[in-house]
Amino acid sequence: MRIRRSFGEISFHTLNYAFFILFTFLCVFPFYYLFINTISSNDLSARGLVTWYPKEIHFENYVQILKIKGLSQAAFISVARTVIGTAATVLCSAFLGYLFTKKKMWARSFWYRFMVVTMYFNAGIIPWFVIMMKLNMTNNFLAYILPTIVSPFFIILAKTFIESIPEVLQESAEIDGAGTLTVFWRIILPLIKPIAATIAIFAAVTQWNSFIDTVFLMTDQTYYTLQFVLYKYLNESNSLAAIIRSGGTANIDLSKMQTATSVRTTVSMIVVIPIMLVYPFFQRFFVKGIMIGAVKG
Amino acid sequence: MEPVTREELKPARSGGILSERYRLFLYALPFLVLVFLFSYLPLYGWIYSLYNYRPGFKLSDTPFVGLQWFRSIFANPTQTAEVGRVMKNTIAMSSLGILTSVLPVAFAILLSEIKAMRFKKTVQILTTLPNFISWVLVYAIAFALFNVDNGLINKIMIGLGLQERGINYLATDNHTWLSMILWNTWKGLGWGAIMYIAAITSIDQELYDAAKVDGAGRFRMIWNITIPGIMPTYFVLLMLQIANFINNGMEQYFVFQNPINKDHIEVLDLYVYNAGMLGTNFSFATAVSMLKSLISIGLLLFANKLSKWVRGESII
C-alpha cells in the first residue's frame, strides 16, 4: 500500500517537473537560438547550420548593423518615445491621481468618470485614424506621446496609492503655506515612488513594444520605430537585400558579411535585449501592478 | 537668510481671483482635453459611415448615402459573405481563447505542487518573459524557427528524414486558427498563471492541514480546496474575456497574416484595417468598425450584469 502510493507520488512529481522543464525550455530556447545565430559565422547561420551552439564566434554584426541606413534613426525614435513617453505618463498619472483625491475640485466625480469610462469603449480604429489625421498626428512624433499620457488604469493605481497616505502630511504642509503644486512636488511625488516605479515599468514596456501606431500613422521613414523596421525586414526580403548591398561590405570575408538572416536576427536581439535586461530585476513590480489592478477591478 | 514677512506666515488662502475649486479643475483641464481629443472626438468620426467618403476629399464634397453601408452588410451578398467569414474567424479565435483560459489555472495548480522554491521562481521568471515581448518579435521568432529556407524546424525535419525538402510553415492556410492559439498560449500562459498563483498562496493553509488529517489525497485537496479557492478569480477573468469577445485586437493577426492565410486569419479589426486603410472602402469599414464598438459595449454590459447576478459584484 505504502509503496504503491509513493510510486504514484514519484511519477506525479516526475511528470510535473518534466512538464515545467519542457515548457520553460520552449520559452527560453527561441531567444537563445536567435542569439547564437547573431554571434556565429554569418555564412553558416544563413544556411541554417547553427542550431544548438554558436560556431566561429564574432560580434561584428552588432557593430555592422548600426551602420545600416535608417536603423540607427529607428533606434533613436524607439528610445526617445520610451523615455519621453514614460516620463510623461508617470508624471501625469501621479498628478491627476493626486488631483482626483482633492474633494474640493469642481465637479470632481464627473470628471473622474469622464476619464475612467474611456477604458471601456473606443470609437473603432478607422474613426480614430480619421481624427488623428485631422489633428495632424500623422508623421508627427507627438502622436507617440500625447495619446498615451492620460492612461486611466495608471491614474486609478496612483489615486488609490495616494489615498492610503496619511492626510496629515499634506495638511501640515498646507498650513505652512504650500500650494497644491508644491505639495505635489515636495510631498506626494517622493512618497509614491513604489507605485511610480510600477507605472514606469509598464509604460516603458508598452512604449518600447508599440507597433500598430506606426503602421497607421507614419509613412515618413524618419518616424519608424525599431519594431516597425524589424517587421519590414521580416517581410520584405527584396528591400532588405538592397539595404545590405548599399551597406558596402565588399571587403569583409564571407563569415562576417551581412545576410538577410544576420540582419533579421541581430535586429531582433537589439529589440529584445532591453526587455531581457530590465525584466528579471523588475518582475516584482510587474506582478505588483497586476495585483493592485485586480483588486481594484 | 531673508526675514520672514507677515504675508508668508499666513495660511494659504482659498481666495484670490479663482477659488480653489476651479483652480484644481484648471490644473486637470489640459489632461481632460487630451482625453476628449483622443477618446471622445473619434466618436465624431462615425459620421463618415453615412457618406461615400474617399480619403483626400473633403467630407462635404462626398455624397451622403445615409444607412446604405449598414444595409449593405446584410443586403449585399458579397459583403455579407465577407463579414460572415470575418465573424467566423473572430468567434473562433475568441472561443478558443475561452477554452484555453483553463490552461493558466492548471499551470498555477501544478506549479504550486512543486516545493523546490528556487526551481519554482526560475520557472516563473522565464515563462512570463514571452508576455513582455511584442508580437513583431514573436513573429521574428516564428520566422527564425519555421521559415522555408533555413528555419530550424525544417532543418531538423529534413535531418531526421521526416521531410524531403523545406515546407513553408508560415505561408499556409492549414491549421491557421490552431497555430494562432498556440502562439497566444506560448506568449501568455506563464503570465496568465501569475494571478492564480497569488490566489492559491492566499488560501488558508489550515484547510489543507485539516484535509490531510481527514486522509484526503492530493487530487481531493486540489478538487475540494484549491479549485474553489481560485474560482472567484477565474470568474472575473472569464467575464472580462466575454466582454472582449469581439475585441481580439489586431497586432498578432496583422504580423502573421499573408495572402495565403488571409481567409482564416482576418478577425474584425484586421478586416476593418485591410478594407479601410488598404482597400478603398473607407466608409464601409467605418460602418463595420462602428457596429463592432456598439456590440462590444453591449457585451460589456451583459458580462457586468451576469457578474452581478452570479456573484453580486460588478466588473466595471
Q: How would you summarize this macromolecular structure in one to three sentences?
A:
Chain B: Belongs to the binding-protein-dependent transport system permease family. The complex is a heterodimer of chains A (about 300) and B (about 325). With about 300 residues, chain A is mostly helical.
Q: Can you give a write-up of this model?
A:
The complex is a heterodimer of chains A (297) and B (316). Chain A is mainly alpha-helical. Chain A has 2 domains: 2-68 and 236-296, no CATH class; 71-217, MetI-like fold. Chain A has 15 helices and no strands. Chain A has helices spanning 2-38, 42-46, 60-64, 71-99, 108-116, 125-134, 142-149, 152-163, 167-175, 180-191, 193-209, 212-217, 226-235, 237-246, 260-296. Chain A starts with a helix and ends with a helix. The mean pLDDT of chain A is 86. By secondary structure, chain B is mainly α. Chain B has a single domain (77-311), classed as MetI-like fold. Chain B has helices at residues 6-9, 20-44, 68-75, 77-99, 102-112, 117-128, 135-146, 152-159, 176-201, 205-213, 218-243, 251-256, 262-265, 268-278, 282-311. In chain B, 31% of the residues are buried. Residues 5-12 of chain B have low confidence and may be disordered. At the A-B interface, α1, α4, α5, α6 and α7 of A face α2, α6, α7, α8 and α9 of B.
